[in-house]
């Protein structure tokens, strides 16, 4: 059992929590919350693998990912009760999820032989598209279009990984840790200080 | 021509009817209604096959499914005129569609060798995701997140099929009939008596 | 470098412009606008290739498409400044995009051996589904459901191509030009004279 495998399981678990908690006014029933956790957890990675034509999809070929999601949904229920601070809990698990998934997705794309620029996009997609699908399904503005720095933090982390890898040939695991840390850092600073990118028009 | 093939064609026909009738305030033109019928009919099965990497997609490889959809859209126009009771007509054809497609999708996934839990999800996806895509496109809350028991009825039917198959080794066609009947029963009871699952939070 | 390849690159460029300009009240930042340009440009072709199981996706296998998108997003920023007439600029580039992509998608589907009816749908999907995904992500009514003749113009162009090809065996490039011109003509006439298809119900 590799470190990467455990990281991916944990990312799935964190994303399932964030998905199950992403409910509008507590409107969802158990099925709806589980479905949201499921889609958030598998959406980004599934899109990446479909775009790359890489089969079987991770969760189709390995039942442990389904169990990680179920655990995440149950944990969401418990955490929510304990903490009663939805927003912060959601932010924490979502940030952990996107940072881990960016690196996992980037490395998978690279291992399938695509060019670095495409691999960076795939890393970002792995991280954010589950949430985008989730938000689109409940007719909310997808998280990537809101003011905070979100997907661009993932892209920055992916570019950081690629640069460190190409220049100083950093150890893979240290590089992954550093680049994921950069994503967490950018994201939390942006939320804390209300940072945003310049407008397009 | 197997029973399963005819069932799938009829499911496609029913779903095309329900999709074409799923219009907001009769706003759609002929193209819009046909597109909605098409997406509703092929969305779930296409998603299943894409997730499983099973090519060619059913409707790409067999033109009869396109004809079943065209027939469904025309039937929707005629039925609507005859009956003038949109809601009930829609409910009837939609319920027939989801019950048939759950079993068709479940059996296809099993035949491709995935584990039972994943096959159950694929059966449910086959049944409900066409409608989810349809609802998302017109910015309505997807049917699976509304209060009524919908996708969970499909999941119950899929689990019933798997249990009957694993325990008493029921004849495949009888099992399919029973499990599809369970879905219809749960769905119609839930609508009739306004049943819903407990809230998540 | 074939004519078809250059046409596809230009279609991608035009679509990236239209996507980046498709902002609600100038709300998007640079990342959001680039993401919208990207999704609009690659959405339809990616969906076509995924539905047909044709890998690698065009933009995954050839980095030039990513560069065409980046060029389009920058051009959008410049054009908007120069022209300050968002609606017309958008209409022009979007119409060029859908006409080129319909023919490109149709020809690719035919080359993969699907039946003409399916190829026509694939041509239309290539043209309009990027915009549909774009509109769905920002919770707008997808362009294909608005009153104007849009996707049906693409379908008419695709049918025109198939008929000319089957009947008079027209030279491929002349046929492509004529059919793309028909799409542009129908679309611009529909916008100019406010034409729409008859209602379904």
From TrEMBL, chains A, B, C:
GO CC terms: plasma membrane
Domain called Glycine transporter: residue spans: 6-77, 92-165
Predominant subcellular localization, coarse grouping: membrane
Cross-referenced Pfam families: Gly_transporter
Keyword Thylakoid: no
Subcellular localization, as worded in the UniProt entry: Cell membrane
Residues that span the membrane, as ranges: 6-23, 30-51, 63-83, 90-106, 118-137, 149-170, 176-195
Topology class, membrane: Multi-pass membrane protein
Keyword Transmembrane on entry: yes
Keywords, in A-Z order: Cell membrane, Membrane, Transmembrane, Transmembrane helix
Family: Belongs to the UPF0126 family.
Descriptive protein name: Glycine transporter domain-containing protein
